[in-house]
Amino acid sequence: MKKKGSSWMIWLQITITVCVALVIYNKVDWGSVWISWRRIDLVWGAASVFLVMVTLGVTTLRWGFIARGLGSPLKNSTAFRFIWLGMFLNQAMPSTIGSDAARVWLLTREGDQAGRALNGVLLDRVLSLLGILLLISISQPWLLELTGGVAIGYMLLGWVGAMLLGLVGLVVVGGLDLPESRYRIVRGALNLIKDIRIYLLSPRLSLWPVVLTMFNFVVLSAVVYALAKGFGFSLAFEHSLILVPAVFLVSMLPISFAGWGVREGAMIVALGLVGISETDATALSIALGLLLLLIALPGGLFLVTLGGLNKWRRQVEQSEVGQEVDASASDAKSS
To answer: Are the CB atoms for 245 and 139 separated by under 8 Å?
Structure first.
């Protein structure tokens, strides 16, 4: 794998995370943040933990459905273990060897074909992106009302529209009769685009994963609402449902370490639209990040069967799957 490319990306993510964190640090009353954490209602806290576990189950169902649609023998019980391990790796590793590479490599260990496993994981990303874009699009009228017509609402609308057009472009390219390439990476990319076209044009194949994704982000909005209630913040559920998916969309950008910093900045901007202070929004966002990290930790237990994190990394880097995932890393991250 290309060490230099991975190295500069890691340092870029760490740099952006630190810079954003420093900006937020100077704006927030950390004494008040600590007070908010100490007074959290444990019932609402337990509800948020339960809801995050629900999202793990929903993500498992979505990926399993997509993988089996491609002919993979993936079982839901196996998918759940791989999803949980991938969640842990997303929190532990600021590199392209994360959740996607783990799922592809582990699936090939179960006997699946490397190319099919890779396409299944990337299709999961694409349909997940489509789901959140549709959910944000549906909430746009209410979002524009909350923003009062300021630029941020229209910027988000334009960004969502551009990504939807990008997916349409993939469908168009997938239908072209392009010549066979002698390069394996190009052939793999074209096969992926053709699979994307097949899924996006087939309601039977795409409807269920997209609906599950939209439901997942509704649940994540409920997680933020539950945490806000636990802290005693005045956040209405409908406001969380309108704003939180956009926060997660921004935090998906591969420009920070596990979304830290970017998520907090987006949360401050979004919740500020409904009167939540910067300090309270930061307390809420950090609590959400710590909750995701806490729930991801048990997923690391699956590494025990693989000989630990370092051994797992070496095995993936030396494998054919590792090379394919690294070559497709930019596509995976953008979706």
So the answer is: yes
